[in-house]
Amino acid sequence: MKLIIFDLDGTLLDTLQDLGDSCNAILQRYGYPTHPLSAYKKFVGNGVQKLIERALPEDARSENIITTLLTAFKAYYEQKPVSHTKPYTGIMPLLEELKSSGYLISVASNKYHEAVIPLIEHYFPTIAFDLVLGHRTGHPAKPDPDIVLETLRTLSIAKENCYYVGDSSVDMDTANNAAVTAIGVTWGFREENELRQHGAQHIIHHPQELSAIV
Length: 214
What we know:
By secondary structure, the protein is an alpha/beta fold. It folds into 2 domains: about 5-15 and about 85-210, 3-Layer(aba) Sandwich (Rossmann fold); about 15-80, DNA polymerase, domain 1, CATH 1.10.150. It has 10 helices and 8 strands. It has helices at about 15-30, 40-45, 50-55, 65-80, 90-100, 115-125, 145-155, 170-175, 190-195, 210-214; strands spanning about 5, 15, 85, 105-110, 130-135, 160-165, 180-185, 200-205. The strands form 2 sheets. The protein has a 6-stranded parallel sheet, with helices on both faces. β7 (about 180-185), α9 and β8 form a beta-alpha-beta unit. The longest helix has 17 residues, at about 65-80.
C-alpha cells in the first residue's frame, strides 16, 4: 500500500459539537426547532446541504428555505470560533508515523472545500498532506467515487495500492464504489454495525490499529 485517504469529520477531527451548535443557531434564527447533539450524528456525513435538509422539519424542506439556511450556516460556521473541534486522540501520532514511513496521505471530505482547508491548516500545521479535497461545486458528493478517483489520478496511485479510512456508511460505500480497500473507524459518528453492513474490509477502534494493517 502506498496511499491512505482519510475522511475528515468523524475520522480525523471531532467536529460534531461545532457543527451541531452552528446548525442549531441557524435553525433558531429562522424559527425552526433545534436538535440535541446526538441527533447530529445521523445528520452529518453527506455534506452541509444534506445536513440542513435533515435538520429542517419535513414541511420546510423547500429549495428556497434550504438555500437560505445553507448560506446562513456557512457564514456562521466560518466565523464561529472552533471552540470544541479537535483531532481525535492518537490521530497526530498516526499521521506523523505514516509520513515518516513514506506513505502518501490525503483527505477526501464531503464538507465543502472552503471549510476543509482552514481546518486542516489550523489543526494539522505540521502534517504535509499530499492532497486535501473537500466537496466542490460541479463534483458529485460521496458516496460517488469521484473524489477518490481524482485523488488516485492526481497522486498517480493504482486502486489496489490505496486504503480509504472513514467513520460512516457513506465512507464505506465510497471506498467500495471506487474499488479501494475500506477501513471503518468506530471512534466517529456512526456505529460499527453500520460500517460492517456497508462493506468495511477492516474495522479499527483506535488510530494506532491502522499501523498494524498498513
